[in-house]
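Appendix C. Worked example: NAD dependent epimerase/dehydratase
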Amino acid sequence: MTKTALVVGASGIAGSAAADLLAEQGWTVHGLARRPVERAGVQPVAADLQDAAATAEALRGIDPDAVFITTWLRQDSEAENIRVNSAMVRNLLDGLPKPTGPRHVALVTGLKHYLGPFEAYGKGTLPQTPFREEQGRLDVENFYYAQEDEVFAAAARDGFTWSVHRPHTVIGLAVGNAMNMGTTLAVYATLCRETGRPFTFPGSAAQWSGLTDMTDANQLAHHLLWAAQTDAAHDQAFNVVNGDVFRWQWMWSRIADWFGIEAAAFDGTVRPLEQQMAGDAGLWREIATRAGLAEPDLASLASPWHTDADLGRPIEVVTDMSKSRRLGFTGYQPTDDAFFALFERLRAGRLIP
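Step 2, the predicted output written as structure tokens:
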């Protein structure tokens, strides 16, 4: 029988990839977002998860075999992140009809589980790398923990199984996404090529020369589906990355080569993209007009603050995936290929020239 999925955040980087994969696999897919976009094989569900009553009404009659929670809303403080994002998960799970059969709920969080929230990101006493799932929570308030607790409480009440997925920085396509390094770097490289500005690494020496990894959205989607369908993966938390490691001093040149520009030498100075791109909105609009691009609004494509947070970390960040491997997940994605595939999609979609 055809299985039914509810993808929450279906217009985002992770959610859109998950929705597409599930549709390809023959699932009946409901894609929930505040402003759903048309996707082949995905039935749109419009709902604001901050409104409990409206969420319950939007979910009336949907009895999913699996729920994939891939969304969050950034707030001005971690206290507000906790209040808003835990309520969104609670409203979703309270608003769903009670399961009539087995149900699995997958929650996507990230490496801030180990690195701390934005207000204390990469500071204080951190777990040793590579990060492993058994390292547990930091002694600090974190909206990821609050989201998890909502899932755990609802699972105990309603009897569904769960999984938590912690990707590193996700590479994928979604316009208007708040955390979008791949498209941000593509836009930055395009600006450097158009103006002759140096393609300068914006981050720290630790990130430039240390080891790191990333997560392709399609790799994450396959991991979500694997966990939902694998009994041994139920009621477990997992890291999920591509499977390779690299240094940014190598990857920066690879990205520069793809755009036909030269990577500037790194002198150890942190030069945040938020400062480098601060006055580029008008320039991007000119480029978009001249090249006939689909999105002239720079803020809808690039999220420099998020890229700066990742590339400015003072420690190397490497993620262990042994837990998934032991349980049978074998997915692998070279990260440079993931960047290049994204850049091709951006060009094909007229989002970069």
